[in-house]
What we know:
It comes from Paenibacillus solanacearum. This protein is mainly beta. Helix content is about 5%, strand content about 40%.
Amino acid sequence: MNHPPGSRSPDPAPHRGGSRTPSCRIRYSVYRGLRSVEMESGEVKLIMLPELGGKIVSLAYTPGAKEWLVDSGTRALRRAAYGSAFTAADMSGWDECFPTIVACPYPAEGAYQGALLPDHGELWSVPWRTCAEGERVVCSAAGRALPYTFTRTMRFLDERTLRFDYEAANWGGETLSVLWAAHPQFLCTEHTRIVLPEGTDRLLCVDGGRTLEAGRSYRWPTGSPVLDDTFTRAGPATLQDCRKYYVSGRLRAGTIGLYDEQSGHGLSLAWQPDVVPYVGVWIDEGAFNERTVCALEPSNGYYDVLSEACRRGTQLRIGAGQTAKWHLDVRMGQGETLFHANM
């Protein structure tokens, strides 16, 4: 089933844009012994590892020396075996979950029904083909359990904003049912506040840990400052707790972010809610990661496990020979004006 494309290194020479394009330098390098690709504007630097599922290991706002992504800490940073448990790997950086988050047999009727889809999907544990095209970095990988090619193209919209253009191409003979979710593990402290999408009025808990009730829908705001903080703040890793929730139903606005009230640094994600209609929030206070992290997870399926999304009719369907497309903008800076959302 797997049709892995070849690979070549990106052009190491600097790339400079015209009047409408921000400055961008793309170069080949080595990060902790692994081949890496670096993209850098005047204010943002990204480091990506093609061999580790296209994992983004660094996303930094350089004027404030602010690193947003958690590193692997004491865990080894190395390629994981296909089909292995995600939590047994490095637990760092930004991965792409596709065609499921939670492992399950492929649920749709047809030639692939029953095919095992691994934990956090297939993409994070397979090498990606990567090349530079002008001021863009294009990286892709082919499915093993299902016939698709997944492509992420990264470019700068301005000095502070990255755009990730995604494509999922079905080169099989029947419609595929899938879901995608971004899985960036952002470092958080007690000063970090999660900025929920504008218009949010209910939150659905899917993993409650010790503080929330799985399966319960909560009104937002809850009316309790303590409970509000449970949804929008993370405690220290010594708590060894975790929780996950979704903004209930289809989104009105495709934005979510993090704001550090101590330093003033902020990060926002933005997308088209008619194409990517869902978003989840994962908070890990030392339950799986060594540090406190928060994953903001825009998704085109609802929720987590593909079989559940198919049962609800909330999966992404890609026709035979068709390609689904969407994008995600990542913006970094300082100050609350970074957000166009409820504060």
